[in-house]
Amino acid sequence: MTYEFDSRKYEKASAHQKEWGERLISELSLRGDERILDLGCGDGRLTAQLAELVPEGSVLGIDASSGMIEVAQKYRKDNLSFLLLDINSLDFKDEFDLVFSNATVHWIKDHNALLRKVWRSLRNDGVVRFNFAGSGNCSNFFAIVKTAMKKPRYAKYFSDFVWPWFMPTVDEYETIVRQFPFRDIRVWADNADHYFPDSQTMTKWIEQPSLVPFLKCIDQSDRQAFRDFVVQRMIEETRQDDETFFETFRRINVYARK
Ligand SMILES: C[S@@+](CC[C@H](N)C(=O)[O-])C[C@H]1O[C@@H](n2cnc3c(N)ncnc32)[C@H](O)[C@@H]1O
User: Fold this and answer.
1) In terms of pLDDT, which residue wins out, 13 or 90?
2) Residue 42: which pLDDT band, with cuts at 50, 70 and 90?
3) CA atoms within 13 A on the CB side of 205
């Protein structure tokens, strides 16, 4: 299952994703001639930063949302291209020195299959570097959206709903990674809990991307009310004394070498 996102709204609502991604990029040690794959490149801003670091190499950003790829194209240049592609359909062989992904692979449910494809995509000595959501992430939003899904007005839309994310613990993820012959494996957690400066900023994040999988299931006539219920409850339950709004953001980091 893939989703269509509002890329222009995401560009404005993704300050904290960009902050994590920029830190990840700043910690990479690159020669400058690598070929890099960015899984779930979104609006392409971080992908463009990667391309700056490999003037003699190249970067390919892939994403399953056509709106995201459309917006990302503005960064396209000689060593940077974008492709509309579902990560689940990855089919590269011995092509990349780095498979990078920021704030994306929690949307992929089967990580055995994902890592098999990533392994195949990498050249020998190539590196995987992921940062994605882990256990404990978005605890307020998840509790509230689950309450909304159970309300009599909306329950009918979710009878065969498949929860869209995989957010493991470090131990669970390390067990998966260690099934592959990667070297130098490191899997670690990161607490990136966040205080949104105001309710509008939090609301933008709720709308893009968090509510997208839920609103997709609901009839047009009920969407606004479902959205309003979740947004209102989030505002009430996460408001702090200083008028900031708190949410848990728990990350899994992965480094491994082929
Ligand atoms: C939170 S955004 C992160 C974008 C970018 N990496 C960043 O840090 O700003 C997650 C991205 O993953 C993409 N995505 C989710 N599932 C995907 C899949 N199965 N295949 C490709 N892209 C996917 C979404 O379309 C979205 O652009």
Assistant:
1) 90
2) very high
3) 21
Q: Which residues contact 186 (CB under 8 A, 6 or more apart)?
A: 253, 254, 255, 256
Rounded to 10 degrees, what is the CA torsion of 91, 84, 169, 139? -160
Q: Give the residue, by CA position, lying nearest to ligand 1 atom 26.
A: 42
**12 pLDDT band (50/70/90 cuts)?**
confident
* Token representation of residue 225: 């009310």
Ligand 1: which atom is nearest the Cα of residue 101? 6
Question: Whole-prediction pTM value?
Answer: 0.94
Residue 5 makes CB contacts below 8 A (sequence gap 6+) with: 42, 65, 67, 68, 208, 209, 212
Order across the sheet with 80-84: list the strands.
80-84, 58-63, 35-39, 96-102, 122-133, 250-257, 183-191
Q: Which helix (H) or strand (E) holds 248?
A: none
* Domains delineated in the chain: 7-257 (3.40.50.150)
Find how far residue 149's CA is from the centre of its chain.
23
> Residues enclosing ligand 1, CB less than 6 A?
2, 5, 14, 17-18, 21, 40-42, 46, 63-65, 68, 86-88, 102-104, 107-108, 209
